[in-house]
Every structure is written in C-alpha cells, then in structure tokens.
Amino acid sequence: MKDLFPKDFFWGGAVAANQFEGAYLEDGKGESTQDHVSAAAFNKTRQVYENIEKDVYFPAHDGIDFYHNYKEDIKLFAEMGFKMFRFSIAWSRIFPTGVEDTPNEAGLKFYDNVFAELKKYNMEPLVTISHYESPFYLTKKYNGWYGREVINHFSRYCEVLFERYKNDVKYWITFNEINCLTLDIKAFQGGSILYNEKGDAVQPKEIPEYMRYQALHHQFVTSAKVVKLAHEINSNFKVGCMLAYICQYPLTCKPEDMMLSNEAMQLRNYLCGDVHVRGYYPSFAKAYYKENDINIKVEDGDEQILKDGTVDFCAFSYYQSICVSTDPNEERIQGNILDGIKNPYVESSDWGWQIDPVGLRWSAHQLYDRYQVPLIIAENGLGANDILEEDRTIKDPYRIDYLRSHIKEIGKAISEGVDILGYTWWGPIDIVSLGTGEMKKRYGFIYVDRDNEGKGTLKRYKKQSFEWYKKVIASNGNDLD
Question: pTM here?
Fold first, then answer.
C-alpha cells in the first residue's frame, strides 16, 4: 500500500480528562460527574454514588496523573511523531460548579501549559469540550442535561475556551459520543442525569427514556449554539460532532434481520449525526418518539438554532462490529457500549469485543456517503491484558496486528474517495477504563505502572507497539511491516 494517506494526514492518539488527568480537586477543580463513579472491581459493575464515600475507590480521582506528568507524556507522544493529540478539557477545572461568574484561572493556566507543550512539538490539538463529564453541582441543581438551564452554563464555558485558546486550537468537538444517550445505561455518563421523575437518586438504567431524549435535545441545541459562537470568535475554527459508531450487521439475509439492523443503525447512529450535520430531526426519530410516547419539550427558535449551527466535520469512534438477529436464541457477545450477536467470521479480543477491521472501512463509507463532510477517526483501539516483563519490556504483537489491519482498511477507504482527516488511536498511553474503571484493560503504546486498585509507581514504559506506530507515522502509513 503506497501513498494512500494524504501528506497532511493527522496521525495521533486520543484520551479523556476523567480517565487520565487525575489531580482531583487540585488547584480549585470541582467535583465532576465521573468523580462519583466507582471502579467495577468494587461493585462488580461501575456504580454512581450521590456522595463521595471514603471507603469506595473512585479511579477518576487519580487517573494516571497526567496533570503532573504532562510534559513527560507529551514528549513521548512527540517521539512517536504524533501530528495530532485529542484530549478533553475538564469543565469542572474551569468552572468548579459550572455556575460561577468567572472561570478558575489555575485551571485555564494548566491547559495554557498543555497547549504550549503541544505547540513546541508541532502537534495539532483536537479538543473535546465535553467528554462524559460535567460539574457534579449541575447534576445536583438541574439533574444534569435534563435541565435546560445547563445550556447557558455550557455556552459560557465554551465562550471562555474559545476566547482563551483562539490562537492555540483549530479543531474542536462539542460532545463525545453524543449518541450514547440513546442507550439506557448511559444516562449519567452521557447526560449527567442522576434523579428520576420523583427526584430519587437511581442508577442509569432506572432513568426514564423520555428524560434521556430531553437531555439529548438540550445537547443538540447547545452544540448548535456553540458552533455558531465558535465561528463568530474565529472563522478558522473547525467544530465537529462525535459519534460512537455502533456497526451492526444483520446476522442473516432474512428480511426481518435486515430491517432490524436498519432500525438499530438509524436510532443509535444517525439520529445524532443527522441533527448535527443536517440540522434537523430525521423522520424516523419523530416516528420513534411518537410510537414510544416520548414528548420532548422543544422551545420556539430551537429548530432554527439547529439549522444555523451545523458542524464542520464528523468524528467517530470505532472498536468493533456486532450482529443483530430476530432469533432470541443466538449466542451473544460483549461489546463496546452494546453487546450483540456473535459473528462467526471474526475473532474477539481478551474482553470479548469482535475484531473487524473491514467494519471500520464500511463504517467510514456509511458516514461519508450520508453526510459528505470530512471525517476523523477519533477513537479506535484494542484493550488487552499486557504484561510488564522483568526486564521492563512489554511485548504486544496482538496490538500491532490490530493496528496494521485497521490502518490498511483506512487507506483503502481513502483510496475509494472517503475524506478522512486523521486517525487518533484510543489510549496511546494506558488509562483508566471508562467501562469498568480497570487499569488491567490496557490500550496504550506506553505502559503505566498502576493496577486496578490504584497502586503502583506510575512509571511509564514503552511497549513494542510504540516503535511500530512510530515507524508507521514516519512513513505516513506506507510501512506496515
């Protein structure tokens, strides 16, 4: 494969503040929603706590301490040759409760320093403004994004970021994997919703569906307002949406399986993409709302706001594909966000996620054909149980194989006419798992000495894949041996 990637292609990696930053409450930071989520090892599943309890382990409090190691970590990314680094800004580090009149200068200064390091190495930042966390005070006061009041608070937060960093950042993402709010398990993670209609604190699956879709509408309106604001502050800004692309194949060519796959893809992937890129709710969403008695409150002017604030590009995450079937007896497998039916034609990772590189190429085609805006593959990666050997080496040929196969398919998609701006591997350095709070589930090219209980030296070690990805970037995707 030769010269399939454009010369200005953005090779890099991606992380999130709540999974790697740490420095809980340091320098004026407030409590975020993720600071209230325990590790799965403590409760067998990750659990949301209304109050921070001393005898519960909350992995977001420490992460991998990027806050105090950002220079070392960015230097390692630069050594690999990163052209782009995707990360998120912690809202509660800028506005500790979300409702302050003025931002926290210490928080802004931290990101000043991060951007200065990136600029030193000519690394383009891709900044996610909201990556699965909000100030927890907004959950207590408004029930998170279910309350329309949060729109103005978020807009003020964005205005501060755009003004402060208008010369440091070009590419922005408003909400990470915004479509996760179509799933009941993501009510708190995606929408910061903790309380049901009676005002009781409950776990995510107990939040009524209409509350999730009301929160989603508020995020749609907010994103559109923020896109317009960004372009007014700096016309060179590029602001995108970000989807968790849930690639779902029909298990068979049975017509009912085909329709089930189509319906699942529409609601899970294209509802959010359509509103962000096209600027209006698609007909299938309106039909679903009517059929399921979901009556969201749309205020006067909201529809025009959505039309006026469409995004410049579409970013997406892709980890795997799943199958769907009308047969309830088919074997099911684990997955990212959703489980699904086992595909007999693909292999699985240590965590049961199906490995399907061709699915990435297919997904890129689906998104580009539908929206005709540039794409960024903002997340793609393999979580594995890596072993630190006695000589402090980590051999991870399985990660190299995963990378190689997926990069080949990206190159093919580009050669077939899909406009892809960049590829940021999820977890270039080991971070806390979003789904489980584990450290054992490692994605990085850089090993971090930390275990599932938060113990370890936090020392960084290069894995075998570090040098391999470095070679790939240096060759602009041409050397995949």
Answer: 0.96
The domain containing residue 275 runs over which residues? 10-474
Q: Please state, in angstroms and rounded to a whole number, the distance separating the CA atoms of residues 139 and 191.
A: 9
The answer to whether the CB of 451 falls within 8 A of the CB of 65 is: no
Degrees to nearest 5, angle at CA 221 with 218 and 226:
120
Both tokens of 147, joined, read 């309350």
79 catalytic residue (yes or no): no
Catalytic one among 379, 409, 416, 467? 379
3-class secondary structure, 304: helix
Distance CA 270, CA 416 (A): 22
Annotated catalytic residue within 21, 117, 133, 177: 177
Give residue 1's pLDDT. 47
- What is the CB neighbour count within 10 angstroms for residue 236? 9
- Total number of domains in the chain: 1
Spell 306-325 as b/e; 16+ CB within 10 A means b. beebbbbbbbbbbbbbbbbb
Residue 481 is assigned to a structural domain of this protein? no
pLDDT in tens, 322-340: 899 998 888 887 766 667 7
Q: Name residue 474's amino acid.
A: A
> What separation in angstroms does the CA of 398 have from each of 57, 196, 327, 336, 348?
31, 43, 33, 19, 11
Q: Which stretches of 232-291 are assigned E, i.e. beta strand?
A: 238-244, 247-250
> Does any domain span residue 317?
yes
Average of per-residue pLDDT values in the chain: 95
* Active-site residue, 379 included: yes
- Predicted local confidence at residue 2, as pLDDT: 62
On whether the CB atoms of residues 91 and 135 are closer than 8 A, the answer is yes
User: Which pLDDT value is given to residue 41?
Assistant: 60
Strand order in the sheet with 340-341: 247-250, 321-324, 340-341, 332-333
CATH no. for residue 147?
Answer: 3.20.20.80
Spell out, as residue ranges, where the chain has pLDDT lower than 70. 1-2, 41-45, 335-338
> At 460, which amino acid appears?
R
